[in-house]
Amino acid sequence: MDYSHDFKCFLMETKQQLGSGATDLRTLGQFLSEMEIFDCAEKYFIRLLEQLENDELRLGDLYDDLAKTASHKSDYDQSAQ
Predict the structure, then answer these.
(1) What pTM was computed for the model?
(2) Rounded distance, CA 61 to CA 30, Å?
(3) Is residue 49 part of a domain?
(4) Alpha-carbon distance 31 to 1, whole Å?
């Protein structure tokens, strides 16, 4: 499947919402989750988790993203953690 158009639209929308041109692994994970590519989304969220150590605000958002992704995968035990 070719998601390039969807990805570009998603990035433009996300940049407008965030008010900046910066995108990161979380943005990519969110895009993959919206495309229902949950395993890859989870990998990017976990990778970013390992990089964020003490950024409590971003960690909270990231754990929320992971819980939503696990829920979509029907991994209810993981989403509750």
Answers:
(1) 0.66
(2) 11
(3) yes
(4) 14
